[in-house]
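Notes from hallway chat w/ T.B., transcribed later so I don't forget. T.B. wanted the structure written out for a chain they're using in a teaching module, and asked if we could keep both sequence and structure tokens in one place. Agreed to drop them here.
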Amino acid sequence: MTDLVHNIRALRQEAGLSQAELADRVGVSQTWISRLELGQGNPTLNTLTRLPEAFDVRITDLLGEQAA
């Protein structure tokens, strides 16, 4: 599992968000968040900028080694 995949799931769970709630914050579908967490999708640059905003973290926290 990549750091990005792990960090998205860990940050989402730490924030107490469901996949649907995170999807709403980011502006994508819940299915897309699920695929991303399973390592089956690649985020667009636009989504990569929205994900850290949804968690109120820096993008380096999202992309770096295990955020949580």
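Follow-up for T.B.: The radius of gyration is 10 Å. Might be a good example for the class.
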